[in-house]
Every structure is written in C-alpha cells, then in structure tokens.
Amino acid sequence: MEHNTYVMAADVGGTNTRIAVVSSQGEIHTLIKRDTHCKGGKDEMLSFLISLFKETIKKSQLPREKISGLGIGFPGPLDAQTGVIFNPPNLPGWNNIPLRNILENEFGSPVVIENDANAAALGEWWKGVGVGTKSFVCITLGTGVGGGIILGGKLWHGASSMAGEIGHTTIVPNGIPCTCGNRGCLEAYASARGITDRTRRILSETEKNREAETPLTFKDISHMVSQGDDRILPIIQETGVILGIAVANLANLLNPEMIALFGGVTSLGERLLSPMKEEVEKRAFQKAREPLRIEVAKLGDNGGLLGAAKSILVHLDA
Ligand SMILES: [Zn+2]
C-alpha cells in the first residue's frame, strides 16, 4: 500500500456535512464541518457540496492531482453500483439523481457513493471497534435504524444495494407503524424517534395530556434514564429486548465475529444493553454466541467519514 495516497471523504447528513482529506492509512488531514444546505432542494445542495469539496482541497494545501478520488456517505436509498440517489426522506428533490456521474464530471477523478449506514460500518471495521475481524455487522441506532454488513473483509451490498436494512426487519408482528409503511420494524422501536414517540404516547396516556403538550425530545429521554425515572425504564427495557431479538437473528443468520452498535441511542448505556444481551443469550445458538463480541462503536462522528474514505480507497485498490 502506498503511503502517500490521499482521498477526499464526505459524510453527508440531512443536518450536518463533514468533509475531510484522508490518507490511505486513515489519517484525517483536513476536516470541515458545516450545516447541510438542503432546504432549497437538490441544485442548491449540489452547489453547496461542490464548493465545500473545493474549499477542502484548498485548505489541505495538497496539489489537486494528489487527491486520487472522492468517497461519499450519503442518506439512502441509493444504488452504490451506479451512484444514483433515490429520494432520501429528509432531502427534498433528490429523486433519481446520478450523483456519482455529476461529481466525476466536476472533479475528473473517481467517485464512490455509499449509503451512510454502510459507510459507518466500513469505518468502524477499518479503524474502529471492528479492526481485525473478517465478519462484522454494524447497527446504526440514530434518528432511524440502519445497518452495514462486512463479510470476508468486504462490504456486502446484496443484489441491488439493499443489504443491511436491519432497521426494517419485522420484530413485532402487527406492531406499531414504521415510517417505511410496514408495522413492527426494529426502527419503529429502537430508533431515537421510535423511543421518543413511544414514551410520548405512554406518558400522555398515563398523565392526561399534561406532558403530551410539550414536545419530548431524545435528550429528555436520556435525562430521564440517567435519573432512573421509573416511567421510562420499562420502555428502555422493552427496547433492549427488541434490539436483542434483532441481534440474535443476526447472530443466527450470519454468525459474525462482531456486532457493533453505533449512534446516539447507545448513550442510554446498560439500561438498554443489559436486556439486549440477556435476550441474545436466550435466542441465539450457543455456537453462534461463542465467537460473537457485541460492542459499542468507538469512532463517533468520524466513523462515517473514515468509511467513506475506505470505500473509495477500496475502489482505487490503494
Ligand atoms: Zn420499517
């Protein structure tokens, strides 16, 4: 592996965008973080991204030709093969947009587009908690729930870039409605939004609308959990059980060396993780559990960024 290969990496979200120059060793050289300009639609957001890429190159003081390619983690659904974006829920106007072609034309170097959950998985596998494993699954527990699967040291995309959508596997038949239109998905329970919505509903049932009027946030949930508030603990316990069912399913299905949990919901700590682990003990085969390590991811915001860098490095074989 060459020591002097550099790529540009971007972690684009509906709220924040982070762009950096990253070496083939995974060192982050130049990092720029901005609020994402996405409200004005696709064209405004595209020019925002292109100007940020140019600013990052300038700030890095590297000659343009030293940057061999561009890797981007972007909200799905998208096709990683073609680099086309299909209408992400939080990004108005991004329907059937050939982002990879647009950026390759703009910069004249190879571009890889990866969905954000896959990028987070790749980053944690390459430089985070999954280092050294050959089979690794990362579950992203944020506003929604996503996932990425590494098998034999490679990201598994599936036949049409849909692999890893653990958030939309059904855990509770006829359970609560999910944003995808189905019912009882993992995401409807274990995402920050799912936990917050369930708590709001339960509080409004028991406390006669008093608290239902004030919008409850995930921050409030975290606070209630840290205070040991007994109105919230059964909800977190149930969330842990549901997450444990999903983790046990993954263990039995893929028999990975590691399943990592990534994202803001993991900050709920042992109140969530203990019931999750108990459920895995009950449901996964012992032989699948023996090699399995369940860990909390450790790269935080840099996970997606480093994964985006790795996706283009893999493509360049650098
Ligand atoms: Zn769903």
Write the layout of secondary structure elements.
Layout: E1 6-12, E2 16-23, E3 28-35, H1 42-60, E4 67-74, E5 78-79, E6 84-86, E7 95-97, H2 99-107, E8 111-115, H3 116-127, E9 136-141, E10 145-151, E11 154-155, H4 186-190, H5 192-206, H6 218-226, H7 233-254, E12 258-262, H8 270-283, H9 286-289, E13 293-296, H10 302-316
Parallel strand pairs: 1-4, 4-8, 9-12, 12-13
Antiparallel strand pairs: 1-2, 2-3, 5-6, 6-7, 9-10, 10-11
The chain binds zinc ion.
How would you summarize what this structure contains?
The chain is 39% helix and 21% strand.
Structure description:
Helix 3 (116-127) crosses helix 10 (302-316) and helix 7 (233-254) packs across helix 8. Strand 5 and strand 6 (84-86) form a beta hairpin. The protein folds into 2 domains: 6-122 and 302-316, Nucleotidyltransferase, domain 5, CATH 3.30.420; 133-296, 2-Layer Sandwich (Nucleotidyltransferase, domain 5). It is built from 10 helices and 13 strands. The chain has a 5-stranded mixed beta sheet with strand order 3-2-1-4-8, sandwiched between helices. It has a 5-stranded mixed beta sheet with strand order 11-10-9-12-13, sandwiched between helices. A 3-stranded antiparallel beta sheet has the order 5-6-7. By secondary structure, the chain is an alpha/beta fold. The structure holds zinc ion. Zinc ion (ZN) is lined by residues 168, 178, 180, 182, 185, 187.
